[in-house]
Amino acid sequence: MIAAPVASPAAAAATAAATPVPGPQLRDIHLPPAPSWWPPAPGWWLLAALLLLLLLAALWVWRRQRATQRKRQRVLAEVDRIAARYAQDGDAAALAGALHQLLRRVARRQHAPATQQRGAAWQQTLARVPVDAPTLQRLLALEQAIYQPQSTFDPALTLTAVRQWLRLALKPAAWKPLPPESAHA
């Protein structure tokens, strides 16, 4: 007869661990699903709203600058049309009148009474734009040239002076503040 092999205590423990023990079957630990990208966390919503506001502000500034630039270009193009009309007909009084009217329309944007000013008051309004004295004198001479049949002003220099004044006058930051005594007039 063959004798049954004697199991060692370690082998018996290994056999007991390999055989299932009756009882409930437990599943292994499982991880929760990965967080989805939608809906984003509140911080991302805040960042998106901030970026949208920044984009809208930049768009508003850009459109406003373009509109201002277009206004400047239209005014300077009007000077070119006036100069072209003068080149065709040679009427110095009409040139002086058109340039003078254009100066008053632009000045009215910064100082409403500019359309009705004469003499020293008109000179103060023109002087609020920082131009040199000869340019200012050429602009003031336009007011006299309107009423004289034979004008003595130089059209080329006057057109240059008007363009120089308009380039600065169309930038609101270039205007000097009103003197205190004329602010109430």
The SSE order reads HHHHHHH
Instruction: Count every beta strand, where a strand is a DSSP E run of 2 or more residues.
Output: 0
Would you tell me the overall average pLDDT? 87
Estimate the helix proportion, in percent: 55-70%
Major sheet attributes: none
Low-confidence stretches: none
Strand content range: under 5%
Radius of gyration (Å): 43 Å
Distance between the first and last residues' Cα: 137 Å
Please report the number of helical segments.
7
Inertia-based shape:
rod-shaped
Describe the structure.
The chain is mainly alpha-helical. The protein has a domain at 71-183. Helices cover 64% and strands 0% of the residues. It is built from seven helices and no strands. α2 runs antiparallel to α3. The termini are far apart.
Give a quick rundown of the structure.
With 185 residues, the protein is an all-alpha fold. It is built from seven helices and no strands.
Helix and strand topology:
Layout: H1 9-18, H2 42-89, H3 92-110, H4 119-127, H5 133-145, H6 155-169, H7 180-183
Helix pairs in contact: 2-3, 2-6, 3-5, 3-6, 5-6
Tags for this model:
185 residues, mainly alpha, 7 helices
